[in-house]
């Protein structure tokens, strides 16, 4: 027997979880769109798990096909349902998506860009957060990349730090469980502490990022001030606030 | 040792075929046996720019499908010694090229030529990936505008991840930046990116800057690569680029806006 052309591996990935509290088709799209608009690059084309864990117990029948259509229309890619109440399982299975058991992983809210929502604002029926498995014990060696990370490429340093000895282009994405050091321009997205390490930092020689994140707290390019834009800078989390400061 | 050079860009219509024709001709002019292969199956174009469209009997896909031998399909250039063209077919579908079959043809060509120039189709999908798969070097053709530069960045990423050299962990594909359709006046007016901007974003060595010029259109309408027009700035810029490709240090020209010359100013002439 010859060796197979593939290898099957277990792996953990970070996904967006859409936690549905209730489903009102006529309001859903508008609410979701408003949420996505706050961090469009983060959500565009990203895989999404639809969790029904906190769906109201007496919630009426959900039209799953309509729900999926609405998600896809906004460039989300639903890949699975999670924590389905048994009475919905047949309908959900008919959509062809995977069905996952209730999650044990920690989720972290993707913060809204507005400081605090106005008090009068109705509680949104949709909540989006990223989530991944709990951090594994022990540290791993640093991952070092010597060539530019180009648009469309993604580099992830699992369990440790990431060092890039070149630029990270617009449209490229670098992620690390630990810190990210970029000895060049950061023009793409950099996400440090993706498994929740709030002490992780991002350092770069030329801060021109599309998006920066530490432990799930995000900032977009328009939040970069004059004092750090296109300058050597570092990014660190202080409490709940992501700080970008000149180096 | 034969060298396979892909001419690629991501974005369409930026000057890949024009550049393949010019650079291939320039290498042959300097005594290096060269073949230019049109990988743009379905959109035959190279033969028009080389002015040999009437002499196409068999094409690349015929060779791939073993319906013709390489000798039957290769067209010897009438103007330049040492130069051959392997045309693409206009009618066949893009899936005709497979990795094994392309590898086989390239192996055969490597025995006979010093330079194999692969004129890539636009895009970053299968066709473009096939054209760059076996490359030793890549000429990334970019126009000085944001969308073209971004696509070049993407194709550079694909070169460094999907080429055979990347796949097998060999020395990476050597990258060259060729900026075409450059118009210094429009750069100064802030309507186009400058050479420095493009170099800063892509961070690869600059092979040449080809000015935007009517001579290029004229040349392709006449089926004569613009490099053969040594009067034209674009022709001279391509010649410089070929010299650099061969390892010579040549200063960059046509990068700054042309000012009326001293005598013209003195005589009150118009540029
Ligand atoms: N330096 C230049 N100045 C003016 N026009 C140019 C220049 N370079 C190319 N062009 C014109 O731009 C058009 C596209 O050129 P060309 O066919 O070489 O591009 P391409 O990248 O091969 O396109 P495709 O992606 O369709 O294969 C042609 O009309 C050509 O004459
Ligand atoms: Mg072309």
| CATH class division of chain B | Alpha Beta
DSSP summary: helix tally of chain A: 4
Which stretches of chain A of 5+ consecutive residues score pLDDT under 50? Answer: 104-108, 111-124, 130-135
Q: What is the makeup of the main sheet of chain A?
A: 6 strands, mixed
Strand order of the largest sheet of chain A: 4-3-2-1-6-5
Q: Structurally, how many domains make up the residues of chain B?
A: 1
Query: According to CATH, what is the class of the largest domain in chain A?
Result: Alpha Beta
Strand content of chain B: 15-25%
Overall form of chain A:
globular
- Sketch the topology of chain B as an H/E string, one letter per element: EHEHHHEEHEHEHHEHHEHHH
- CATH H-tier superfamily of chain B: P-loop containing nucleotide triphosphate hydrolases
Helix content of chain A: 10-25%
| Structural class by SSE content of chain B | alpha/beta
CATH topology name of chain B, in short, is: Rossmann fold
What percentage of amino acids of chain A are in beta strands? 25-35%
Total strands of chain A: 17
Average pLDDT of chain B, to the nearest integer?
92
């Amino acid at each position: 027997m010859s060796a197979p052309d593939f290898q099957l591996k277990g792996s953990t990935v970070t996904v967006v979880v859409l936690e549905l509290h209730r489903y009102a088709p006529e309001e859903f799209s508008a609410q979701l769109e408003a949420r996505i608009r706050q961090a469009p690059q983060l959500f565009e084309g990203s895989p999404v798990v639809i969790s029904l864990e906190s769906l109201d117990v007496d919630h009426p029948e959900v039209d799953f096909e309509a729900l999926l259509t609405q998600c896809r229309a906004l460039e989300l890619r639903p890949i699975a349902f999670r924590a389905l109440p048994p009475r919905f399982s047949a309908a959900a299975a008919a959509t062809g998506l995977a069905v996952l058991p209730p999650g044990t992983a920690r989720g972290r809210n993707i913060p809204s860009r507005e400081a605090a929502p106005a008090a009068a604002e109705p509680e949104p029926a949709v909540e989006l957060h990223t989530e991944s498995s709990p951090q594994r014990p022990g540290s791993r060696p640093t991952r070092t990349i010597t060539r530019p990370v180009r648009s469309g490429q993604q580099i992830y340093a699992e369990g440790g730090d990431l060092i890039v000895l070149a630029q990270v282009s617009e449209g490229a994405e670098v992620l690390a469980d630990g810190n990210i050091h970029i000895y060049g321009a950061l023009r793409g997205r950099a996400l440090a502490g993706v498994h929740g390490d709030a002490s992780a930092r991002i350092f770069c020689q030329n801060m021109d990022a599309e998006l920066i994140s530490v432990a799930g707290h995000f900032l977009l390019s328009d939040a970069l001030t004059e004092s750090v834009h296109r300058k050597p800078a570092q990014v660190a989390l202080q409490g709940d606030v992501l700080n970008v400061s000149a180096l | 040792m034969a060298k396979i050079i892909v001419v690629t860009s991501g974005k369409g219509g930026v000057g890949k075929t024009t550049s393949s024709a010019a650079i291939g001709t320039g290498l042959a002019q300097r005594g290096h046996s060269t073949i230019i292969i049109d990988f743009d199956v379905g959109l035959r174009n190279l033969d028009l720019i080389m002015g040999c469209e009437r002499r196409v009997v068999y094409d690349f896909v015929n060779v791939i499908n073993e319906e013709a031998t390489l000798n039957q399909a290769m067209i010897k250039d009438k103007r330049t010694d040492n130069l051959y063209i392997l045309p693409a077919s206009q009618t066949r579908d893009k899936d005709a090229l497979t990795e094994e079959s392309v590898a086989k043809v390239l192996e055969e060509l490597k025995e006979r030529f010093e330079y194999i120039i692969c004129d890539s189709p636009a895009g970053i999908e299968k066709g473009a990936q096939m054209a760059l798969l076996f490359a030793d070097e890549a000429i990334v053709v970019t126009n000085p505008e944001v969308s073209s530069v971004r696509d070049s960045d993407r194709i550079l990423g694909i070169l460094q991840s999907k080429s055979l050299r990347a796949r097998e962990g060999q020395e990476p594909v050597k990258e060259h930046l060729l900026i075409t359709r450059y118009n210094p006046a429009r750069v100064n007016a802030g309507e186009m990116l400058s050479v420095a901007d493009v170099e800063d974003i892509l961070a690869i060595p600059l092979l040449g800057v080809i000015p935007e010029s009517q001579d290029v259109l004229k040349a392709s309408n006449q089926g004569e690569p613009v490099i053969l027009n040594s009067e034209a700035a674009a022709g001279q810029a391509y010649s410089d680029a070929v010299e650099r490709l061969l390892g010579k240090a040549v200063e960059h020209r046509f990068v700054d806006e042309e000012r009326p010359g001293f005598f013209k100013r003195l005589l009150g002439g118009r540029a």
